[in-house]
UniProtKB/TrEMBL annotation:
Gene3D superfamilies: P-loop containing nucleotide triphosphate hydrolases
Domain ABC transporter: 2-231
PROSITE patterns per UniProt: ABC_TRANSPORTER_1 (PS00211), ABC_TRANSPORTER_2 (PS50893)
Pfam families in UniProt: ABC_tran (PF00005)
UniProt-listed InterPro entries: AAA+_ATPase (IPR003593), ABC_transporter-like_ATP-bd (IPR003439), ABC_transporter-like_CS (IPR017871), ABC_transporter_ATP-binding (IPR050763), P-loop_NTPase (IPR027417)
Protein name per its UniProtKB record: ABC transporter ATP-binding protein
Source taxon at top rank: Bacteria
Record keywords: ATP-binding, Nucleotide-binding, Transport
Lineage: Bacteria, Bacillati, Bacillota, Clostridia, Lachnospirales
Gene Ontology MF annotations: ATP binding; ATP hydrolysis activity
Length: 281
């Protein structure tokens, strides 16, 4: 679906933003592009969606070079930007009816059904978007991205501005899109979203890709193979960290009750810091 080879880009002469990125995204895959602000995530997405030109290297989408894409290229993609691009003096309905007019009638999804799926508050349907909270605007932006039943969906910080319930809702919708066969390119610095959603992730920092693999493999390959056991013995709570092979012979200390056992595998954020030498902020 996406093939990128030696991608470079500069906003200013002699100050390169992207330093030879190479990666691919398979059909139907949720691919996470993870990094802190200023790492090159959004720049890469803008190139892939045709917003930024003047890049170096080779980019292919749908099996064709990006520069040779036909006029219907944008009919096959959906884009959720990090900051909502909406007409704030128009209502949610008016915004979506306007954007829907760009697509063929037979490819459009029902606007009211989309807003209901996204749990948009009905009281705000006909009010200007400027009256909506950031979370409600994000719902309208997601509806806009899904309007045309895209084959390729670009999501930039999709759960930004959402409360925990809204974040769970969005993750469920993204999973449903993947089940339909939609390919998802997810740019984020939210490691929970990446860990729960992505088939593979790429770590990007300072315009360079530092690692690409599945979240599971990245964590397993760097695991210290320890478990943490919380227990009670003679009325007192205790915690012990032991090597996993020790469990084969049983728990090697006295206890009256085991409260919990947790593996000590690193988090995806731990892995990002290990590979890039920096945090996500």
């Amino acid at each position: 679906m996406i093939e990128v080879e030696n991608l470079t880009f500069s906003y200013q002469k002699q100050k390169q933003t992207l330093h030879g990125l190479t990666f691919s995204v398979a059909d139907g895959e949720i691919f996470g592009f993870l990094g802190p602000n200023g790492s090159g995530k959004s720049t890469t997405q803008k190139i892939l969606t045709g917003i930024l030109q003047g890049y170096g290297g080779n980019v292919r989408l749908f099996g064709k070079a990006l520069g040779s894409q036909q006029k219907n290229f944008r009919e096959k993609i959906g884009v959720l930007f990090e900051f909502p691009y909406l007409y704030t003096n128009l209502s949610a309905l008016d915004n979506l009816h306007y954007f829907a007019s760009f697509y063929p009638a037979d490819s459009r999804r029902d606007i009211n059904e989309l807003l209901e799926l996204l749990e948009f508050k009905k009281d705000f349907l006909k009010k200007p978007v400027s009256f909506c909270s950031k979370g409600m605007r994000q719902r309208v932006s997601m509806a806009r991205a899904l309007l045309n039943n895209p084959q390729l969906l670009f999501l930039d910080e999709p759960t930004s501005g959402l409360d925990p319930q809204g974040a769970v809702l969005f993750r469920g919708i993204i999973e449903e899109e993947r089940k339909k066969g939609t390919t998802v390119f997810l740019t984020t610095h939210n490691m929970m979203d990446a860990d729960l959603l992505c088939d593979r992730v790429a770590f990007i920092a300072d315009g360079e890709i530092k690692a690409i693999d599945t979240p599971k493999k990245l964590k397993e390959e760097n695991s210290n193979h320890q478990v943490e056991i919380n227990y009670v013995y003679q009325g007192k709570h205790g915690t012990a960290v032991i090597e996993m092979p020790e469990l084969k012979a049983g728990i090697p200390f006295p206890y009256d009750e085991i409260i919990s056992i947790h593996s000590k595998e690193p988090t995806l954020e731990d892995m990002f810091i290990q590979y890039t030498g920096r945090g996500l902020t």
